[in-house]
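Problem statement: downstream parser choked on a complex file, so we are re-checking the raw output for the NDP run. The parser issue turned out to be on our end (a line-ending mismatch), but while we're here, posting the original submission so the record is complete.
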Amino acid sequence: MTAFNRQIQLAAKPFGVPKESDFKLVESPMPEPAEGQVLVRTNYLTVDPYMRGLISGAKSYQKPVRPGDLMVGGTVGRVIKSRTPGRKEGDVVVGYWGWQEYAAISGDHGHLFDTKLAPMSTGLGVLGMPGLTAYFGLTEIGKPKAGETVLVTSAAGAVGSIVGQIAKIIGCRVAGCAGSKEKIDYVLGELGLDAAFNYKDTENHLGQIREACPAGVDVYFDNVGGTVSDAALLKINQGARIVLCGQIDQYNATEMPTGPRLLFQLIIKGARMEGFLVNQFVDRRDEAVRKLAEWLKSGRLKYRETITDGIENAPKAFIGLFKGENIGKQLVRVAKE
Ligand code: NDP
């Protein structure tokens, strides 16, 4: 064990797409667990698009991260010292202790992760927050039925890749939108989607959606927003459900974005657009993890992780999300298991 705890702090509030200089690596003293706490060593931390909102200082459902603050975020690691009866050395904990190598956390922080289900990294991905977002967003907000058409944006990403596969399991026709040929090949070849298009190939997204969804769109699971969403709204069917999961197209906007546009389509199609936060479903985590793990075990659900090594590279990995560098869940490996 090193004598110091390396952490990443926010150095400056970013303008537009964040830069590596907006973050700094600092050394702080090794934390000591107090009575009732455990010392955890981080194996993986996750970088997620929502963090862009937190570091903008905007008021949100979560406390903003200000310059000089530790970067917050999901983490998974092992207990290396315990001062509470509920947790023992070696336990794998999924929590929220931020971008740092070690943390002294309360004995009831986060939840234990069962590595018999899958590797611990999945506690931040397919069996963690993104997996739950896909599961509840699709089944509870989108409510797709067999035979319907589902269109998902950022289809090769952490959430989108799971949404597409669950929709296939339900028996839907599924089309995906992503930003590179490699991603299109992945969603068609490995994930088994029925159709997919690269939104960077042309500005004619309406033409792309028409081709990918010849029977129109019954459930539009949107991770992105922007011009693809405009086109998708023009192809929704009567009674369609639009799941507003994310709007990454707007997260780095330096001016107030235009829209939402074309909402008259909801009127004429009697359609519903509904936003949600995965936190709404936190009480049902066990149910989702059980189901997702069952699908993983049977081979019906696949996942991929893009892993960046070293806590010092966490800012780079985070910024990569806005450049489309990840396939599946983007993680940072802080220490080997
Ligand atoms: P992803 O793994 O999908 O990674 C982000 C991807 O977004 C990139 O790889 C890139 O893929 C795409 N992207 C980036 N910038 C743009 C842009 N300007 N226009 C179009 N696509 C872009 O991230 P997650 O799966 O973690 O998150 C997906 C979305 O879901 C995000 O919007 C996020 O905020 C939201 N979310 C919402 C939750 C909720 O509770 N509602 C919970 C978790 C996530 P590409 O190469 O295809 O462009």
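For whoever reads this later: The CA atoms of residues 93 and 112 lie 5 Å apart.
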